[in-house]
Amino acid sequence: MLKGISPFVSPDLLHTLHRMGHGDEIVLADAHFPGDSLNDNILRADGVKIQDILTGILPLLEIDDYVDDPIVMMDAVSGDTLDPIVEEAYLIPIKKYASGVPAIKRIDRFTFYERAKNAFVIVVTGELAKYGNIILKKGVTPV
Question: Catalytic annotation on 22?
Answer without folding.
Answer: yes
